[in-house]
Amino acid sequence: MSIDIREVTLFRVRKDLVREFETSSHRKNYIEHVLVKATTVHGMVGWGEAASPVDPFYCYENTDSCWDTLRRYLVPTLLADTFKTPADALAASHVTGHPFAHAASDMAVWDLYSQTQGLPLTDALGGTQREVSSGVSLGIERTIDDLLEVVALHVRDGYRRVKLKISPTWAYEPAKAVLDAFADLVVQVDANCGFDASDLDSPVFTKLDRLGLLMIEQPFAEDDLLSHATLQRRLDTPICLDESITSLEMLRVALALGAGRIVNIKVSRLGGVTPARAVHDACLDAGIPVWCGGMHEFGVGRAANLAIASLPGFTYPSDLSGSSKYYETDIVEPAIVAHQGMVVVPRERPGLGLQVLEDRIRAEATETITMASDKI
After folding, report:
1. What is the largest CA-CA distance in the chain?
2. In a domain, 351, yes or no
3. The domain containing residue 333 runs over which residues?
């Protein structure tokens, strides 16, 4: 059955975070994402989410750019034709870059496609895992005591792996304090490109290397693969690439240079479910372990992430903790929850695998627009 979309509605939805979150570049207390509802000529509904940052600090995209790109370019593309597969719909776009916006449209088409197959998204993708091991990502706190308090809360909730955001001034001491306080906890750190080439000889990396961390994620800028490769040769601890892996082609360059030993796959950063699966497949073939990173997704994007993380190459705990860690309420039922660090992959119905609460989305949306074709 072809995917023939006759109407698309965009919703801009803002949610306050339960706790402020700080990385090496900025601090935030709320999230604002664009949700896509695509309706076919037969009345089938698919959902997608542009989980972009509010401001262009993590990447050049933000909520405003995703809204504009979807409204002016990607939605008209979805309405203009019919598609046999999600890959066909993604290939129809002539927009350069803008992966977060593309991810929303691709996700909605995958939701529709898997419904036409009568399958939950995880099965349509070839997922093999029925539950996913989840870690939790923790921002930079004001003091080490504050950090230890937050870690303790998540350890009590059953999480067995934590990721600590670091910066040039917040790295070794907090990581060591957490490891000293929680001897059985698996710890990794994430710099979000916070260091530059001049830091290659900094003692901080040598000190971090002695801690027995699971990995050091993205110390340098996304395009500085040479510095990553140089540092990786010096360290026993694996370097994980996140922001650098913007496409299948960049993955191949990074692997050829030896710039890292682990890859963080983010559906949003890569431009959708379609390219995320392609990167997974390439890493699996190359023997590179992967895990699924998050962008504070609402339930729609989180369900898609769980479906991707069910693929066989995902062997490290992913950043797919329960949504209640971030928001008081979510926009899906059943709510996505973690039990002892494990999250069940949604499979209750075809498509994303759970129910999207459109009434709640409409009530919380700060802006809504509907675009339609003349299809009957």
Report:
1. 66
2. no
3. 123-344
Tokens of 140: 């930079």
Report in angstroms the alpha-carbon separations of 83 from 2, 40, 77, 79.
Answer: 6, 11, 11, 10
Residue 349 maps to a domain = no
Q: If you write DSSP's letter for every residue of 281-325 in order, what string do you get?
A: HHHHHHT--EEE------HHHHHHHHHHHTSTTB-S-BS---GGG
Cβ-contact 6, 74 below 8 angstroms: no
User: What would the pLDDT profile of 13-70 be if each residue is shown by its tens digit?
Assistant: 999 887 666 565 556 678 899 999 999 999 999 999 999 989 888 889 999 999 999 9
CA distance 198 to 202: 8
CA pseudo-torsion sign 19, 59, 144, 302: positive
317 and 185 in one domain? yes
pTM of the model: 0.93
Using DSSP's 3-state secondary structure scheme, residue 79 falls into: helix
Give CB contacts under 8 A, 24+ apart, made by 231-238: 231/200, 231/205, 232/258, 232/259, 232/260, 232/261, 233/258, 234/205, 235/205, 235/209, 236/209, 237/208, 237/209, 237/211, 237/212, 237/213, 238/214, 238/262
Q: Structural domain tally of the chain?
A: 2
Closest CA to 46 of 61, 36, 32, 56: 36
Side chain identity, residue 247: S
Same domain, 289 and 192: yes
Task: Specify the DSSP class assigned to residue 55.
Answer: S
Residues assigned a catalytic role: 165, 266
Residues 232 and 135 in one domain: yes
